[in-house]
Amino acid sequence: MFKMSHKILIDGKELPLLESATIKESVESLIKTAEIKLPYMRYNKPIAPLDSIARGQKVTIGLGYNDDIKEEFSGYVSNVYADRSGMVISCEDGMYKFRTASLKNEVLKNPSVEDILKRAIKQVDPSLKLACDYNFQYDKFTIQTATALDVLKQIQDESHCGIYLTGGTLHVHPVYTENLGTVKYDMAKNIDRDGFSLKFKSKEDRRLKVTAKGKDKDGKQIEKYAGEGGGDTETIDYKGITTEASLQKIADEAYARKSYTGYEGSFQGWLIPECHRGYRAEISDETDTVKNGTYFVKSVETSYSRQGGIRKVELGKRL
Fold first, then answer.
1. pTM for the complete prediction?
2. Would you say 223 and 213 are in contact if contact means Cβ atoms under 8 Å apart?
């Protein structure tokens, strides 16, 4: 018999009661978020007065079974309010600092992605480190009344890279190249048939041609392609990217994300095994071994309450 266990600290103080907690993380989102719901009253007294919880306070969420608790989230309070059902505390991971940090207005000439990110980090928190696999350059990059998060979002939108903050390091990598951990799922053991929405498709059924458009330094349009015709098409304009090599790399990565033989969709598991965005999930099925394979975990939504703990795992490409 499993007993639900949790420990949630806000500003170093443990919350006495909990209705539910939901944590969302995705390689396509800059921010890992959490929502904590509390009953507003107990014995006709507020559980935690609204004015006792404030934006910017440190938050940690630990979840587990039978008092074996593992940290699932670390970040800051981003909003707090009360409704008829109780108190709701919205939280963001370390990217909260990037959201609240306004950058110096400037126009950068011929900066690399790494140059831009180092400037942003220096103004947010000089103690942060940077791990960046992208080396393409912009002809010009303008920062005007922008937060550090605005700059990260622009780079992510224009390059389709994965950006996340963990362990005091800002990571910027091509999506699906990271391996933050490995988890094993068996169709007969630890995948819940409730919430199961995986579909197995062949690469031939995912025919795709990607066109990446940009402009060189003289303003002339350049295009690079990946994939093949006869199926879906995807065209993306990349403002500020002026080199053919950078456009080709981005087109190749966009194609690789969507063209493969394997599962797509999501399924439900439990708190055990632990699974997060950027993990590699090994999926096995004794009744249909041709579908066995390793997949990149695109997103995870972890829900916790007295009724149980569930992870909704969304798969990315087969590796």
1. 0.88
2. yes
